[in-house]
Amino acid sequence: MALIVQKFGGTSVGSVEKIKNVANRVIEEAENGNEVVVVVSAMGKTTDELVYMAQDISRTPSKREMDMLLTTGEQVTISLLTMALIEAGHEAISFTGWQAGMQTESVHGNARILDIDASRIQAQLKAKKIVVVAGFQGSDANGEITTLGRGGSDTTAVAIAAALNADRCDIYTDVTGVFTTDPRYIKEARKLQSISYDEMLELANLGAGVLHPRAVEYAKNHQIPLEVRSSMEKEAGTTIEEEATMEENLIVRGIAFEDSITRVTVNGLPRSLGSLSTIFMTLAKNRINVDIIIQSMTAEDTTNLSFSIKSEDTEAVLNVLENNKDQLAFDRIETEGGLAKVSIVGSGMVSNPGVAAEMFEVMANTGIQVKMVSTSEIKVSTVVNEKEMVKAVEALHEAFKLGQHAKVLV
Amino acid sequence: MALIVQKFGGTSVGSVEKIKNVANRVIEEAENGNEVVVVVSAMGKTTDELVYMAQDISRTPSKREMDMLLTTGEQVTISLLTMALIEAGHEAISFTGWQAGMQTESVHGNARILDIDASRIQAQLKAKKIVVVAGFQGSDANGEITTLGRGGSDTTAVAIAAALNADRCDIYTDVTGVFTTDPRYIKEARKLQSISYDEMLELANLGAGVLHPRAVEYAKNHQIPLEVRSSMEKEAGTTIEEEATMEENLIVRGIAFEDSITRVTVNGLPRSLGSLSTIFMTLAKNRINVDIIIQSMTAEDTTNLSFSIKSEDTEAVLNVLENNKDQLAFDRIETEGGLAKVSIVGSGMVSNPGVAAEMFEVMANTGIQVKMVSTSEIKVSTVVNEKEMVKAVEALHEAFKLGQHAKVLV
């Protein structure tokens, strides 16, 4: 008998029919003799619909009240799923975030989990019930309802798995696993049997979108084995675990990409120690995420600074910079839109210094200009023209033999 | 400065536009220098939609999970209304039932309020905030979410008014007050300036539908003055208070009526002491509400029993009686459908023994056959043919001069 935490996202519970299907997946595990805790998101488009209503009332709705509003979404799902489990003859009980003991910071919209009092869940598991928990939500020490922000349901599932010392945490989603790259664009994309926490973290941060980075980090810290798998298909998914336990150790395990990137270049910044931090503090205060950052010196004792942003943030970035021009003391700003980011990820890179070079060579041979570069121990990111994005991914996928099984062992 | 509890029902908060309108009504009271607590129901058809989803999953959904599901309805309304209040420049905060301290029995679907810990509401009033509370819901001692059943939001409002020792509890609805009879049927129907708790209780129980009987009873027990008024029109509504404080004391204050009534007659019951209680205990166990009951002796040492039910319960009643025929030992059952109940209500009746006789005379003069009669201290109910219902109400409304103001003083 194992203790399994299952998480089903919004697409998997998007209709009453789909909820019944999820109930069957849950019952399978229960009938195999396992204890099961299920974490669910709001149904399909529910969250969007609630957000629209709020925006009809206020362009800047109170964050506390947004949490009050949005947490109803998962509450609907847990009750319907529990009804479906009971209807199928299984004992089951639902819990909201506060009932499940998800204690968070006193922050609305993006709270971190402080502690989990899993006693109520444990008591119900002991009573042989399937426990259904609302993802994404918790409450603070004053009984205020909070939410965990984007990808919160993944985090809920992993955190509960850690608190219960679960044997496994299965993340059910609308894809069958983690792929070497996005199969909607690259037909040679192959589902990975396993991937390390760190690789998944880089892929998640790079927009692969299957699993939220916070959840992966939490799983890594608590050594919870994750499996990403399909809520519709029965095939095995991708396990996410420590490097050491993995079967194949590829140099490059996956390729992530993202379009709608804009490069912003700030020319003629004074070469003072504080000018960089001033710029990025100012942008952060205005909640603008900056990705790749490149700094270059000029002959005239000034600095040119380039960074990449999501194109949708361009106007906001320009406003912030212009509004702070006196303090930032730059010369002028240039922007270049229509760009994309292409990144290769793999733990094997650490011990293979030539990987970045190989990547640039592939790009050059394919006739693709690399406009920005950023590297970490297990990834290399490049910025290219949006129109060449898919071509770049195809060439890299081919060059690093990602379509084939485990040929490139370290 | 007064402390006012306002309650807005589902129709009043049926859309984002209507919620903004409600916000304006709330703000008016606040800007008059009053402390305001607002109790709201779920938006319009929300509850129905949630019920449909549940019924798609199970014909007999778990009551606990139904409470989990339905309570999301009010939670959506409180957050949206609070956003609207904040958007209009007022400080406001929303509370779910459990946050507002509504402590109930451990019963799902129809829990009674045990106690109210109003400290969280009081603290926010002290901080000069408008407090918005979810009606209809509470929680038990184990932190389980419960609901108060039909008319629960009215009860929430009155209970909070009592706990806070409020100066007034205003029930906003889609009519402008309590009428002498239903204005959709009788064009002479007149809005009452005031009505006593007891009269309102009789009217509410008779299907007048404006205010839930439980709420009226709670208000009477705690002497909370109620006012029923329109959420759209600005005119004064109807106050509900103790008899002694009322301006006009009419003999008959209102006429209630209800169609789709069926009379069931059980012939040839043994004249034993227990046979009546056995029948009604059996029906009650099967959750069938019986209204008027008439018993008549026959020559043959047996009893004939008639009672009225809602027509929709007819099949269930017949099944229950037939299934228990051995124990109940009756001869045969007759039913007559297509009936209606017409009742006159007024505190003045207690000291005017001729009122029932006058009612029967009016019916006779109008050519309407009275098939059943039941009386209490402040009401007389009759059962007539459904086709004659409106004619009966018109004649009674005219005869008791309900269309005119305060002519019939005691």
UniProtKB/TrEMBL annotation, chains A, B:
<comment type="pathway">
    <text>Amino-acid biosynthesis; L-lysine biosynthesis via DAP pathway; (S)-tetrahydrodipicolinate from L-aspartate: step 1/4.</text>
</comment>
<keyword id="KW-0067">ATP-binding</keyword>
<keyword id="KW-0547">Nucleotide-binding</keyword>
<dbReference type="InterPro" id="IPR054352">
    <property type="entry name" value="ACT_Aspartokinase"/>
</dbReference>
<feature type="domain" description="ACT">
    <location>
        <begin position="264"/>
        <end position="338"/>
    </location>
</feature>
<protein>
    <recommendedName>
        <fullName>Aspartokinase</fullName>
        <ecNumber>2.7.2.4</ecNumber>
    </recommendedName>
</protein>
<keyword id="KW-0028">Amino-acid biosynthesis</keyword>
<dbReference type="InterPro" id="IPR001048">
    <property type="entry name" value="Asp/Glu/Uridylate_kinase"/>
</dbReference>
<comment type="function">
    <text>Catalyzes the phosphorylation of the beta-carboxyl group of aspartic acid with ATP to yield 4-phospho-L-aspartate, which is involved in the branched biosynthetic pathway leading to the biosynthesis of amino acids threonine, isoleucine and methionine.</text>
</comment>
<dbReference type="InterPro" id="IPR018042">
    <property type="entry name" value="Aspartate_kinase_CS"/>
</dbReference>
<dbReference type="InterPro" id="IPR002912">
    <property type="entry name" value="ACT_dom"/>
</dbReference>
<keyword id="KW-0220">Diaminopimelate biosynthesis</keyword>
<dbReference type="Pfam" id="PF22468">
    <property type="entry name" value="ACT_9"/>
</dbReference>
<feature type="domain" description="ACT">
    <location>
        <begin position="344"/>
        <end position="410"/>
    </location>
</feature>
<comment type="pathway">
    <text>Amino-acid biosynthesis; L-threonine biosynthesis; L-threonine from L-aspartate: step 1/5.</text>
</comment>
<keyword id="KW-0457">Lysine biosynthesis</keyword>
<dbReference type="GO" id="GO:0004072">
    <property type="term" value="F:aspartate kinase activity"/>
</dbReference>
<dbReference type="InterPro" id="IPR005260">
    <property type="entry name" value="Asp_kin_monofn"/>
</dbReference>
<keyword id="KW-0418">Kinase</keyword>
<dbReference type="InterPro" id="IPR041740">
    <property type="entry name" value="AKii-LysC-BS"/>
</dbReference>
<dbReference type="InterPro" id="IPR036393">
    <property type="entry name" value="AceGlu_kinase-like_sf"/>
</dbReference>
<dbReference type="InterPro" id="IPR045865">
    <property type="entry name" value="ACT-like_dom_sf"/>
</dbReference>
<comment type="similarity">
    <text>Belongs to the aspartokinase family.</text>
</comment>
<keyword id="KW-0808">Transferase</keyword>
<dbReference type="InterPro" id="IPR001341">
    <property type="entry name" value="Asp_kinase"/>
</dbReference>
<dbReference type="Pfam" id="PF00696">
    <property type="entry name" value="AA_kinase"/>
</dbReference>
